[in-house]
Amino acid sequence: MSAVLTRFDKPAMVAALGDVPWSDAPAQLKLKSRDFYWFSPVLTEKLDACRADLIAMPRDEADVIRIAAACARLRLPLVVRGAGTGNYGQATPLFGGVVMEMTGLNRLRWIESGRIRAQVGIRIAALDALARKEGQELRHYPSTKRLSTIGGFFAGGSGGVGAVTHGGLREPGNLLGARVITVEETPRIIELRGQDTGLVNRTFGSTGIVTEIEMPLDPVRPWQDVLVSFPEINAALRFGRALAEAPGIARKLVSVLGAPTVALMTPLRVLVPAGRDVVPCMVDAAHMEALRDLVAAHGGQIDHSADSLEAETDPARTPVFEFTYGHTTLHALKSDKAITYLQSLYDIDRAEAQWAAVQARFPDQVLAHFEFFVWEGRVALSGVHLIRWSTPGHLQSVMDFHESIGAAIANPHVSTVEDGSRYKLAPGDQLRFKAEVDPRGLLNPGKMRSFVPPAGNQKDVA
Amino acid sequence: MSAVLTRFDKPAMVAALGDVPWSDAPAQLKLKSRDFYWFSPVLTEKLDACRADLIAMPRDEADVIRIAAACARLRLPLVVRGAGTGNYGQATPLFGGVVMEMTGLNRLRWIESGRIRAQVGIRIAALDALARKEGQELRHYPSTKRLSTIGGFFAGGSGGVGAVTHGGLREPGNLLGARVITVEETPRIIELRGQDTGLVNRTFGSTGIVTEIEMPLDPVRPWQDVLVSFPEINAALRFGRALAEAPGIARKLVSVLGAPTVALMTPLRVLVPAGRDVVPCMVDAAHMEALRDLVAAHGGQIDHSADSLEAETDPARTPVFEFTYGHTTLHALKSDKAITYLQSLYDIDRAEAQWAAVQARFPDQVLAHFEFFVWEGRVALSGVHLIRWSTPGHLQSVMDFHESIGAAIANPHVSTVEDGSRYKLAPGDQLRFKAEVDPRGLLNPGKMRSFVPPAGNQKDVA
């Protein structure tokens, strides 16, 4: 860690930046070196002291190129940051250096039928609003849509709202293009198309600096926020699966929250009767009649229903998607600071039995939160349970138990690309691409831990 | 059969009709007593001599009610007909009586966001054109879209184009409402909503006279017709499955046609190189780049690509959907009168081996045609193979062989609701509903063969 830090040469860097805005005020360095890693007590302990040496704030791509060239020449770590809403410390510099905040690059490039291209620093909600003006909408967004940048989602995320219909971001057609700047003394610009776009997806900014991305748009739908409740969780899981698999009902989101989880979520708790298990979902308003039939067939009741867009655009309201994905944990943390979470992949055909086993083994310590999404041609079920934090050993025992019953873990208490994946590795094509665009390994060093700089460059980052 | 026929009393019927248009010209009786049952040599032999005694042509619902009341009072069979493009003899009267042609009821009721309501006799292409004016489109249509009425599709069909994304018509949300006239001396009007609409779906007009239906609409997409070809059928099947399961590519149609099938289809043969297996498909034009990646990854090539709407609206052109579903057989029959077909359900995970077994057992006698569709939460694979006709015994051996390798048969060489289904039965709720709306069993008698009129009414149709 120290080897790189000691190299930070402020006068040289400031000279190289020219008129690019920057700051090294301690409050700024602290603020911009953090993201939502504090969801995890493990990451908090590991990352809380990490600090950038300088925050750079490019206004356009020329500024980005200037910063990249300077870092390459001065051999400085470069961490690219959006709004800092990631949960894995994606935006936290492990070895100091420069954090580059991309929110100044927030221009729309163009909208066509079925596609949109914009700079990475635009807020997702703003980008979606631009698409809606043209009768279109984004397929995917995170529960932090109102805060996050599209580039941060792209570089740090894998799916989220929309994945119940369109699968993850890496499914063919979900990412159309990316403009990538290399970290070299003379940076190059690379346009990635189609499946190659996956080379820079969810690599925490370690495989190139993305300045523009191109995403698919779908025709806009009148989404309806709905909260459906059930007297027991298996009914909620069965209804959730039926809705997630209903090809005749347009659906954007299907989640399941156990009653103890709901009890920790203050703004949700007031919308549903106490003690009920809740399915937050978003469906096309034209399909509410079909939804009501499905709810009745599963013994549920609709406790809340609202126009999704109205809820999203009113800062005083909470749209249903803000009760799901990462926001479930966020709300719970506001009620109880000893909460954390865990990501897992249930077997959808054995999910009720798997969850019953978890409940029996960890009563009151693991609280149900599930998300449905499409994966490998089918609807799959992710567990994003809340965990009552006690010790790292207890957390490990929850993970071990999940794996013992066939639920794979994607550990959110780690800060590397590899350890957070179910496969515990970075794809070979991403590693090869990193060697091409970041030969000295300066981009977010330590995050793609299996990367080894090409021979001849290794000493530079030693 | 004769018991009912002898009862036909023309003066009484004509008097009852009042000013409702009707005909008993022999050419009309022949024409309007037929549909596309001649796809099947078995049905041709069985149905070719069947004739209505009178064709009634209602102009509006009041006419329909008058005809229904007259048939109820005079105890006459009543067969409801759209454009007559069904393949099962749906529109053929087994016991004479009245055929009621619904094409005069062709009014749009309304279009809203996500839904459309119209009288049953409107052509599907015309209905879709009305929806498109409002930026919306129908989810499903048959390959006979340019000929068929929406009511005929609804009463005689189960899915078709669109089912690869939205599943069959009976999936929740795919049929929203139906207005049903009962066959009683004083007919009643019943509005069916939601899942109850299934009571009159694919019952060949035997469970009530439908005068209006309400269907879901999706936001319109710029569909692109595409023909992709492969050097061998397993590559075509694998590509077809990958596309059918690609949640990031909007797709309306994915079919597979073996090279020998293509060779029989004159207008298709000129568009692709000889000897290639072909995947006709429709995808959103904005997703062509993702499609090209997928085609390349499977070793295929794109031989034809065109705007779907332009092809559909030009009478001189053949849109890609007219190479699929029933039209595959139709084109082949134009080249070779000894062709018929067979419907089956392959196991998508064993489809290559199943097809290899069929090929080995019936070389040159069974020609590959597959359709992908969504069923029970997954993409499924239907075989709609062409069969070189020789004898009923040979056809039976093809069916038996399919069942022996685990491919269920939905026999299209029968004229009853039950025998054409994989389960060989009519659902109990449809039978109960028929007893309520058609207590004397006058609607398309003989088609729902397991129906027994309620006690007290049985002698009337004996």
Automatic annotation (TrEMBL), chains A, B:
Pfam families documented for this protein: FAD_binding_4
Keywords annotated in UniProt: FAD, Flavoprotein
Claim: Amino-acid biosynthesis is one of the keywords in the record: no
The FAD-binding PCMH-type domain, residue ranges: 47-220
Species annotation: Falsiroseomonas oleicola
UniProt protein name: FAD-binding oxidoreductase
InterPro entries in UniProt: FAD-bd_PCMH, Oxid_FAD_bind_N
DNA damage as UniProt keyword: no
PROSITE patterns attached to this UniProt entry: FAD_PCMH
